[in-house]
Automatic annotation (TrEMBL):
InterPro entries: C-C_Bond_Lyase-like, HotDog_dom_sf, MaoC-like_dom, MCH/BMMD, Pyrv/PenolPyrv_kinase-like_dom, Pyrv_kinase-like_dom_sf. It comes from the Eukaryota. This is MaoC-like domain-containing protein. It comes from Polarella glacialis (Dinoflagellate). Residues 112-207 form the MaoC-like domain. One of its GO terms (molecular function) is catalytic activity.
Length: 245
């Protein structure tokens, strides 16, 4: 039953509104003081200004007085302008690698692995508005050489790039420049467990801007049998390590 008293954090834009809502008016403060003075020596409930009051009313009156005192202290200690200052958007942490770390030939095994579910395939296929029965219809899939639905290949590619981000480009990339080649040597089926690795194929600093450079990655994804199910060669514009780090 903490109500608003239990609210621990607020948005900076709420500060003025909340302060106004919780700051007692002069009339409320005067009534609270008068009530507590009238309660001095009283036992149990008693009549005050034509109304019956009891312990809960006294507690609320004391809260108003205490809050008024803390508000006065807060106003003198923290200017309103400071309370309205919005924090800067965080720039880290950096889990990816800087341009200098992405040397040609570097192999990066990725920690994230994933078992593909039917929900993954269904949602991705629906979101991409792909009506192909080979991804959605079990009866139609029985007539194919695979005998069961294929996982949408673009989901496989997206997953491959996604699981590579943490150890390669997280917080250190500027832009994805594009894919040179994407291959699907083997199909992926619902229930397959996938892992990935990335090889740095090329890496060079920018000729016009020393704070960045272009890196060519070769991403590879394997199923639980060790078969390659997807390869993607892509170029990314990467940040050089900032001088402050």
């Amino acid at each position: 039953d903490t109500g608003f008293d239990g609210k621990m954090t607020i948005h900076p834009d709420q500060i003025d509104v909340v302060n106004a809502a919780f700051s007692p008016s002069k009339e409320e403060l005067a009534d609270a003081k008068e009530l507590l003075e009238a309660a001095d020596g009283q036992l149990g409930a008693f009549r005050f200004k034509g109304q019956m009051v009891d312990v809960p009313h006294l507690k609320q009156a004391q809260k108003l007085i205490d809050r008024a005192g803390s508000d006065e202290h807060a106003e003198s200690a923290v200017p309103a302008e400071k309370a309205k200052v919005k924090p800067e958007w965080p720039d880290g942490p950096y889990h990816g690698k800087w341009l200098e770390e992405l040397t040609e030939g570097l192999m990066i095994p990725h920690a994230l692995t994933r078992t593909v579910t039917e929900t993954d395939n269904l949602l991705f296929t629906a979101l991409s508005m792909n009506p192909a029965k080979m991804h959605l219809d079990y009866e139609s899939a029985k007539k194919t050489q695979f005998k069961k639905p294929l996982v949408n290949s673009l989901f496989t590619m997206s997953l491959l790039v996604g699981v590579s981000v943490l150890e390669t480009t997280h917080g250190t990339t500027i832009a994805n420049l594009g894919f040179e080649e994407v291959l699907f040597p083997r199909p992926v089926f619902i229930g397959d467990s996938l892992r990935a690795e990335t090889e740095v194929v090329k890496s060079r600093p920018s000729k016009s801007d020393p704070t960045q450079g272009i890196v060519t990655f070769m991403h590879r994804m394997y199923n639980q049998n060790g078969d390659i199910v997807c390869t993607a060669r892509r170029n990314a514009l990467m940040r050089a390590r900032p001088s402050k780090l």
